[in-house]
Amino acid sequence: MTTDVLRYAAFTTTPDGGNPAGVVLDATGLDEADQQKIATDVGYSETAFVTRAADGYRVRYFSPLAEVAFCGHATIATAVALAERDGHGELLFHTQAGEIPVTTTLGDDGLTRASLTSVPTSSREATPEEIADTLVALRWSTADLSSQHVPHVAFSGNHHLVLVLSSRERLASLNYDFDRLATLMTRFGWTTVQLLWSASDTVWHSRNPFPIGGVVEDPATGSAAAAFGGYLLATGRVDAPTRLTVHQGDDMGRPSVLTVDLDPSDPRVAVSGTATPIV
After folding, report:
1. What is the rounded CA–CA span in Å between residue 31 and residue 233?
2. What is the Cα–Cα distance from 264 to 242, expressed in whole angstroms?
3. pLDDT tens sequence across 102-136
């Protein structure tokens, strides 16, 4: 057994971009307390812990404060790490949220790209209480929200509040009440609050506060990107196979690019990106 922690930046081609994730490729013998301690010491928004299974791998994800059922960027990082060790191809991750098929390929540019397929997504309208309390914690008002997109709580293994904003400027000016939003998210059972602005029908900008994980903001959130895909499917905004590009982390100085593939005939959502080692 080795508990060496590999460090990767996911959804980027440079180590100073994207979302850092810890990866332990052999977590055999580590109990929950061990994994939590390692994740806390690493300090990234999530660290993934991998053990072999008969038909793939069991993967658990821990933030600095608690276990998370599923984490997209750590899944991408783990898949790239496994591909670099064992070769490219098909993988199956057994997570607390369900089975996650992952494909890794080597591009002409020499970079490994990983694509995960989420569990079936779902989405429902947010309640007036959820919206009002969140806006107070964000220090925003209803005028900051897009009138064309109804706030939802979307699911892709975790629950995420989805708020589409009226302007890129409002997205850039995020300055929320950390403790208040953390308490609120715990009460409602959300993993992140996903804040979005539409540059076009297929290009979006996102920010994701993550106070319940002990992190102010995620620079790239694969699970939230999948949940957002579920939101678009549930609200009837996709009527044909569609590819989205989600830019996240720009306002943090850690730019990330997430590719999201949707098909109205399938509630599952594919999220793809690269990952690069952090030395």
Report:
1. 38
2. 9
3. 999 998 888 999 999 999 999 999 999 999 999 99
Q: How far apart are CA 228 and CA 131, in angstroms?
A: 17
Number of structural domains the chain divides into: 2
C-alpha span between 209 and 232 (Å, rounded): 21
Q: Report if residue 1 sits inside a domain.
A: no
Q: Looking at residue 69, which CATH number applies to its domain?
A: 3.10.310.10
Q: What is the pLDDT of residues 12-31, one digit of tens each?
A: 999 999 999 999 999 999 99
Do residues 264 and 139 share a domain? yes
Assessment of whether the complete model's pTM goes beyond 0.90: yes
C-alpha span between 31 and 48 (Å, rounded): 13
Residue 279 resides in a domain: no
Instruction: Specify whether 46 is catalytic.
Output: yes
Reported as half-sphere exposure (CB side, CA atoms, 13 A), residue 220 has a value of 35
- Give the active site residue among 32, 46, 125, 217: 46
Of 113, 137, 153, which residue constitutes the final position of a domain?
A: 113
**Residue span of the structural domain in which 95 resides:** 6-113
